[in-house]
Design goal:
Length: about 210
């Protein structure tokens, strides 16, 4: 057989057509990274399930243990807590505010910041929290805006995608994507110059079908 039917791929070892994993969208199978038991892309940070049962996932990567300043979420078998609003308790001289952030005990309330004289001043109107008066001093944004390099924008620019699961921020696309729906290599909408669209990935050379 010169070509396998859609939803299957050619196993080069056996020479047989085998079914692709459930959820495969491109009608071709791409091997997961060696650390992944299942994945949504070929990279080491594309794992959905880790091959090592004792490993934990952090941002799609399989690790031996959670990093400092993160905690283990047993339900999802993931490390969490890098988000500023994930704090359960705070260091000495800090308190947990209503949004889950750790702030200094004498820190100003939301929508305000402390100036050089120790006085609380109002943030820019787009900022939810801030470090100064300007529109480029935002720490996070009021809805429906997204944070991009300390500035609140209505929509993320080309090369970024909107991440609103925890903090509303613009995250950079995979380096092959011109525009995207997520950070992985298989979440491209359009490709950067020099790359070709294949399924939802951007590749330097198209593979033969």
């Amino acid at each position: 057989m010169s070509r396998c039917p859609p939803g299957t791929f050619a196993n080069k070892t056996s020479g047989q057509c085998e079914d692709c994993s459930e959820g495969e969208k491109q009608q071709e199978c791409v091997r997961c990274h060696a650390d992944c038991a299942s994945c949504d892309g070929p990279g080491l940070d594309d794992c959905d399930v880790c091959r090592n049962a004792k490993a934990v996932r952090y941002n799609g990567e399989c690790l031996a243990e959670c990093l400092n300043s993160t905690y283990y979420d047993e339900t999802a078998n993931e490390c969490r807590g890098h988000e500023p609003s994930s704090c359960l308790s705070c260091d000495i001289d800090r308190r947990r505010d209503a949004s889950g952030h750790c702030v200094w005990v004498n820190q100003c309330s939301l929508h305000s910041y402390k100036d050089q004289d120790g006085e609380c001043r109002q943030c820019h109107k787009l900022c939810h929290r801030c470090s100064g008066p300007g529109k480029d001093n935002c720490l996070n944004c009021k809805e429906p805006h997204f944070l991009l390099n300390s500035t609140c924008v209505q929509q993320c620019p080309v090369g970024y995608y909107a991440e609103d699961e925890d903090e509303r921020v613009c995250e950079r696309c995979h380096f092959t994507c011109q525009s995207c729906v997520g950070r992985h290599s298989v979440q491209c909408r359009t490709c950067k110059p020099g790359y070709f669209k294949q399924g939802s990935s951007c590749v330097e050379t198209c593979s033969e079908r």
